[in-house]
Amino acid sequence: MMLLTKALRKQLPPLGATAEEADPMVIVKFFYPDFHWTWFGIEFCPETEIFYGFVDGDFPELGSFSLVELKTTRGKLGCAIERDRHFQPCRLSELRKQLGR
């Protein structure tokens, strides 16, 4: 599965573009099918392949994560990270509400 399509690349604003927004749009979701960590992309730099977004892991936080790491990391049972094809972009506040965070 292609983690980041051309269409998604076009939708993601560049790094820093939403820094002044109180409630930015979350564009894309990545997850382990066999582990509890999930990454939600808000911004993306195509040159460095670095995202800024919400990471829902042991300690949920806003921060940076790498497309390269997403492509090479495996879950508890060896499963690759996947993109949620059914994820609908939403505001960060709505996502946190959905997750109970």
General description of the model:
- This protein has 101 residues and is α+β, with helices and mostly antiparallel strands.
- The chain has helices spanning 6-11, 67-72, 92-99, and strands spanning 25-26, 28-31, 38-45, 50-56, 61-66, 82-83, 90-91.
- The strands form two sheets. The chain has a five-stranded antiparallel sheet with strand order 5-4-3-2-6. Strands 1-7 form a two-stranded antiparallel ribbon.
- A hairpin with a 6-residue loop joins strand 2 and strand 3.
- The longest helix is centred in the C-terminal third of the chain and has 8 residues, at 92-99.
What share of residues are in beta strands? 25-35%
Q: For the terminal residues, how far apart are their CA atoms?
A: 29 Å
What is the mean pLDDT?
A: 95
Strand order within the widest sheet? 5-4-3-2-6
Q: Encode the helix/strand succession as letters.
A: HEEEEEHEEH
Q: What's the number of extended β-strand segments? A: 7
Q: What structural class do helix, strand and pairing data support?
A: alpha+beta
Task: Point out poorly predicted stretches.
Answer: none
Number of helices: 3
Write down the overall geometry. Answer: globular
What level of helicity do the residues show? 10-25%
Radius of gyration: 13 Å
Largest sheet: 5 strands, antiparallel
